[in-house]
Design a protein that fits this description.
- This protein is of the alpha+beta class and 78 residues long.
- It has one domain: Glutaredoxin (3-Layer(aba) Sandwich).
- The protein is 21% helix and 40% strand.
- It has a four-stranded mixed sheet, covered by helices on one side.
- It starts with a strand and ends in a 5-residue tail after the last strand.
- It holds the Pfam family Thioredoxin_3.
- It comes from Candidatus Accumulibacter appositus.
- This is Thioredoxin-like fold domain-containing protein.
Length: 78
Amino acid sequence: MKTNATFYHAGCPVCVAAEQNLAKALDPARYEVEVVHLGESKSRVPEAEAAGVQSVPALVLDGAVFHINFGAGIEALK
């Protein structure tokens, strides 16, 4: 059974680089990765906040939030 992973980002260069280097590096046999562009999907900002995301880019994996660098605070995406 695959584990769900959600990669939240805002489309900035830091976020895009993290997506290309980290989210795509996860083993597709083990992880089902969903990429969520919060700049385009603002309705999903509350979901990201509920998961514990404080800034993007961030990867939520097994309920744990991994903040990767700092592209934008979550408040800037509302």
